[in-house]
TrEMBL record:
GO terms for molecular function: ATP binding; transmembrane transporter activity. This is TOBE domain-containing protein. Residues 51-107 form the Transport-associated OB type domain. GO terms for cellular component: ATP-binding cassette (ABC) transporter complex. It comes from Microvirga tunisiensis. Pfam families: TOBE_2.
Length: 118
C-alpha cells in the first residue's frame, strides 16, 4: 500500500492492483505495511467500492467448515489471508478482501536507521 497526501491534507491509500481511496488519520507517507486482525476482514465483490474500506481483489484457494461458519484462504498476488464468512463460496471464485480503513495499523515499509532498537 502506498500513502500520499492530497491538497486538502487528507491521505489517500493506493492498494496494490487496487483503487485509490481516502484515508483519514495519521499515516506515514510512502510505502507502508498494513496489519489487521483477521476478524475485521470480510468477503465482497472484487470490484466493490465501499466508502471507508479498501477491497483487494483475490481468489478463494481453500475452504473449511469448522462449524457455524466457513473459513477461507484468499490469495492476493503471492500472499494468502484467512477470512471467516457465513456464506458458502466455491473454490477459485474471484472475491474481494474488504478491509475497513479505520481498522488498519500502518507502519513505514522501510525502517529508519540509527538509534537503539530493542
Amino acid at each position: 500500500m502506498r500513502q500520499r497526501p492530497s491538497v486538502s491534507g487528507a491521505f489517500f491509500g493506493e492498494a496494490i492492483r487496487g483503487t485509490t481511496t481516502a484515508f483519514g488519520g495519521d499515516v506515514p507517507v510512502g510505502p507502508v505495511t498494513a496489519y489487521f486482525r483477521d476478524d475485521i476482514a470480510s468477503l465482497d465483490d472484487p470490484r466493490a467500492r465501499i466508502d471507508g474500506s479498501i477491497v483487494l481483489p483475490g481468489k478463494i484457494t481453500q475452504r473449511t467448515y469448522p462449524g457455524g461458519h466457513y473459513r477461507y484462504v484468499v490469495a492476493i498476488g503471492d500472499r494468502h489471508f484467512t477470512v471467516t464468512d457465513d456464506r458458502y463460496h466455491e473454490l477459485d471464485r474471484p472475491v474481494g478482501l474488504r478491509l475497513p480503513l479505520a481498522a488498519l495499523h500502518l507502519f513505514p515499509k522501510t525502517q529508519t536507521t540509527g538509534g537503539h532498537h530493542a
